[in-house]
Amino acid sequence: MLIGSSRRSRMGRFRSELAGAVVLAALAGGCGVDVNFETPHDHVTFIINGQQTTVAMDGTVSVQIDGVPQLSYSGPAGCAGHYFVDDDSEVYFRYTAKRAYLLRGNQLYTFNEPPRQGGKDIVWSHTFGPDKITILANCPLPSAANVR
User: Fold this and answer.
1) Which of 28, 36, 71, 78 is the most buried (most CB within 10 A)?
2) Is residue 11 scored above 70 in pLDDT?
3) In the structure, what pLDDT confidence band is assigned to residue 40 with cuts at 50, 70 and 90?
4) 86 CB contacts (<8 Å, ≥6 apart)?
C-alpha cells in the first residue's frame, strides 16, 4: 500500500484512440468544428503488457512515498525534472542518465540501464517476470552531471 502524498500542477492523460475518435467524429459530422488536439511536449508513454497510456506534465510536483525513496521528489515536473506522475493510475516515473524507476500500484520496477535514443524519444524496455514494459519519454537525454 502506498503511504504518502503527491501534489502536481497541470497534468493530463491521453489515449490516442480517444483523440482519434474525437477528430473523426468532428470531421464526419460536418459540424464546422475545428478540432486541434496535440499532446503537450513533455510526455511519457507507458506500454505495459500491450496496454498504452500517455501522461503529460509540466509545472512542479512534490511527491513523498514512504518506503520508496527513489521516487520521493520535489521540483520541476516533466522533462525538466525527469519526473512524471499519474495519481489516478498510481503510476510514478523518475529517471536519470543511468537508470529509471517506475512505481505502478505497489510494484517498483528498476531499469538499471541508461535510456537509448529511439527517434525523438528516449526509451527503456525490459521484461520483469511476466511484465513486458516499454517507456517512451518525449524528452532530451538527461545529462550525466545530474545523476543521483
Assistant:
1) 78
2) no
3) low
4) 11, 13, 53, 55, 92
Helix boundaries (H) for 12-116: 16-29
Give the number of other CB atoms < 10 A from CB of residue 62: 15
Q: What is the mean pLDDT of the chain?
A: 78
**What would the pLDDT profile of 110-142 be if each residue is shown by its tens digit?**
999 999 998 889 999 999 999 999 999 999 988
* Three-class DSSP category at 145: helix
Q: Is 129 left (phi over 0), alpha (psi -120 to 50) or beta?
A: left
What is the pLDDT, as a whole number, of residue 111? 97
CA proximity to 57, closest of 110, 106, 18, 6: 6
Backbone angles phi, psi at 134, to 5 degrees: -125, 135
